[in-house]
Amino acid sequence: MHQKMKSHMSFFWGDATEILFPGWPGPSFSSYILALMLVFVLSVAVEWLSHTKFIRSSTDNITAGLLQTAMYATRVGMAYLVMLAVMSFNLGILIAAVAGYTIGFFIFGSRAFVNSKISYDSKISPSDEDQADLPPLNC
To answer: What InterPro entries is this protein classified in (predicted)?
Structure first.
């Protein structure tokens, strides 16, 4: 028998929630932890995709444009999944999403690591090798 879940319109704390699909993550605490990990990984992946250079400078413009568009669509799709998960109004999901975006930015976008020389300041024009394929994600 399918249990009826209460729809929350304010933030709440607890593992009895539905996150993206009816019946998911399920009634067990372990499935809730798995959902938290999924939201965290999706958030990190959005930041990784936002700060990664996949397209070589030798790639022709049409191919580069198609790859860039596919990467953009993937990033936006993943970001919307995270947003929809946060709209479950579960504080654990919100914390997992913010932590994922924060850790992802720290690893892939901050100056904490030597390989991160990406700058989007309009006054500074870094070489093409230092720029990511996608512009920063704006809310």
So the answer is: Cop_transporter
